[in-house]
C-alpha cells in the first residue's frame, strides 16, 4: 500500500545551528526526503513564504506543506538528490535529481505505476534563515512522457501529433492572413 502523506512529528527537527543558507537548503531537502513537512512548516517556511512550482504557486507554510502532502500521495519512493548547490548571499541555487513511482493521482493525473526520474532546479531566496521565495523548475513534458501521458520523443505517435499540430497552425496562420 503506498504511503499517503507526510507523517506528523511530535516535535519538529531543528535545522543546524549557525547554518549557511546552502546548509539550510540541504537540511530542507533532507526533511523533504524524510517526509517531515512539520519541521519545514515550523522552522523554514513562514506565512509569507511563496513557492513557485511549475503547476502553480503556494503561499504560506500551510499551502506549501499541503502541496508536498499531495506529491507524497502521488509519488511512492519519492527521493531528491542534490547534484550541485551554489550560494550567493540570500540566494541558493540547487540542481537536483528526483526519483519515484507515480502511484497515485498527481495534479489530476491518475497513478500509472511508472518510474519517474527528473532533473530540476530550485532557486531559493532566504532571509533570516526563512524562505522568502523558492522557484522550482523541471521539464513537465519529460514527466508526462515518463508516465506515458505523452508519446516518447521521436516516436511515430510523437511525429504524427507534431505533424497534426503544425498543419493546424499553418491553416490558422493562413486564415488570419485573409
Could you list some keywords that capture this structure?
178 residues; alpha+beta; 6-stranded mixed sheet; 5 helices; 6 strands; elongated
Could you explain how this protein is built, in words?
The chain is of the alpha+beta class. It contains 5 helices and 6 strands. It has helices spanning 21-33, 37-43, 60-74, 140-146, 156-177; strands spanning 50-53, 56-59, 75-88, 91-102, 115-127, 130-138. A 6-stranded mixed beta sheet has the order 2-1-6-5-4-3. A hairpin with a 2-residue loop joins strand 1 and strand 2. Helix 2 packs antiparallel against helix 3. The longest helix is centred in the last third of the chain and has 22 residues, at 156-177. The protein is elongated, with a radius of gyration of 19 Å. The N and C termini lie far apart (59 Å).
Radius of gyration: 19 Å
Morphology: elongated
Query: How many helix segments?
Result: 5
Main beta sheet strand tally, sense and closure: 6 strands, mixed
Sequence of secondary-structure elements:
HHEEHEEEEHH
Record field, number of beta strands: 6
Structural class: alpha+beta
Q: Which regions are unreliable across 5 or more consecutive residues at pLDDT < 50?
A: 1-10
Q: Percent range for helical residues?
A: 25-40%
**Mean residue pLDDT:** 93
The end-to-end distance, rounded to whole angstroms, is: 59 Å
Task: Determine the strand fraction and express it as a percent band.
Answer: 25-35%
